[in-house]
Amino acid sequence: MVSLFLFSSLIENEIGPLFFLIIYFISLICGNLFALYIHRNHGDYSSIGASGAVSGIIFARIALYPNLGIGFIILPFSIPSWIYGVLFVAYSIYGIKTKRDNIGHEAHLGGAIIGLITALLIQPSAITTNYVTIILVLIPTFVFIYFIIAKPHILMANNFSLKKKNPPLNFEHKHNIKKVDKQKELDKLLDKISKRGIDSLSKKEKKRLEEFSS
């Protein structure tokens, strides 16, 4: 929310409160929807919070003011907005792929990109003046989104697999699977005996039959 406070006044003064709210809520909704789509086969996943909306406001500022500095409380200097945007996208992609934390990187990235695009739709003149920044932010993002949706195996990103994950097997499950496999093997041997007689079994098959009988 500190980030929202720092970035909101400039954007609101530039585009007005109505468009500011449009960017905020579109980024909020689309960010969460993007996260839910990525995890659509993960039944225990939920996407809650306004972080996608905050990211959308930040990237709306980046779209309109790419060279304006962004400062950090713990650092004595600021960096241009466009550098922050590129680093943010790179970190979000890394976070989505590795899943080493509980941060909703998917909602952040989705909200950020929607916020940037919405700001450009509101002020299309920024496209001609800030096209380099827009390309640097959007192209790697769209390429990554394409791969995690269409070709997740290329990134080896199991988190985005279009197949449903099988839950890990405990000892009881493994034991039951072994019992089923043994029963199938025994049924196969008995079926062979009923059709061709016990002499049709090989030495190995007879040994297995004795093991099942013991």
Textual characterization of the structure:
This protein is an all-alpha fold. It has 2 domains: 159 residues, no CATH class; 43 residues. A hairpin with a 6-residue loop joins strand 1 and strand 2. The longest helix is centred in the last third of the chain and has 26 residues. About 5% of the residues have low confidence.
List the helices and strands and how they pair.
Elements lengths: L1 H14 L1 H22 L12 H14 L4 E3 L6 E3 H18 L6 H18 L2 H5 L1 H20 L1 H4 L15 H26 L6 H11 L1
Antiparallel strand pairs: 1-2
Helix pairs in contact: 1-2, 1-3, 2-3, 2-5, 3-4, 3-5, 4-5, 4-7
Structure in a nutshell:
The protein is mainly alpha-helical. It contains ten helices and two strands; from the N terminus they run αααββααααααα.
Shape: rod-shaped
Structural class computed from helices and strand pairing? mainly alpha
H and E order? HHHEEHHHHHHH
Strand order of the largest sheet: 1-2
Q: Roughly how many Å is the radius of gyration? A: 28 Å
Main beta-sheet strand count, sense and barrel state: 2 strands, antiparallel
Strand elements, count: 2
* Total count of helical runs of at least 4 residues: 10
Helix content: over 70%
Tally of separate domains: 2
Uncertain runs: 156-165
